[in-house]
Amino acid sequence: MTITVLDTYSAMTRILRAPAADRVALLRSMLHPLSGMYRYFPGDVDLVDMHRQASGFPVDRDEKRCLDALETLAAAGAWERMQRALDDALAVQTAATPGLEAPDITVLVVLGDPGDAHFMGPSLGVTGNGGISGYIVITLWPFPENVERVEATAVHELNHNLRYGPGGVEWNPMTVTVGEHVVSEGLADAFARQLYGDGLGRTRIGVPHLHNEAVFAKVVSGLDVTGMHNFTAWVHGDATAERFGAAPVGLPTGAGYAVGNRLVDAYLAATGQTAAQALHAGKSEIIATALRHEG
Question: What is the share, in percent, of the chain residues with pLDDT greater than 70?
């Protein structure tokens, strides 16, 4: 199994410096390696539209701001650091789970949109998608905190990729629950923390709510909710749900991450496992064990 972090720095620089009329075609070419990521979607998926919906960098404005941001990421060695982190994390994970099956993984690092108020505000300039086996996309803006956390961000998404890979946990859209999503975020953070410590390993949007008992109780009350259209509010919070046209449920940004961290920490403490060892642990076992021991 090989993990490849593609050289999107060169591709994005070329796109942003190209004549405006050529940029969409160049962007589509850069995104082409992701086409298999949408294999479960009905019909054809326009990769450029998906890029825009996911707060990817614009091709019709903010060129200088985006080029400067790319140079900041390049100067920080973001691409090289992610490659090393992913290779190291894979070694840790395979040692903890002998016989782990996984396809090769393609990783795209994409600059975010500085004009997207939700991405730059509530989302703190970073999003990731690692749940489809074989593909990881990380969209970010080089705020100092995000540059510092590039390794942890990458291995968080790797954990998702391997949990839902061959022989792992099935994500069945018809039966999957909020609980599975919450647990998966907690496991991914726990894995990042196993490698990089609590300071860097926790997803930033969840940190403010780690000790909020009202948030904990509210999310726990929704762990059995099904229907993936509901997940955004329960896991990411109301602001993100409203951004994507979903109904709010009364939760702050990152609520599900905070609760996932608490549930997984309680489970790991009770069982004596590491996050890597718990990669494929069932959500029902994690939740039941955690709720007996949490706090």
Answer: 100
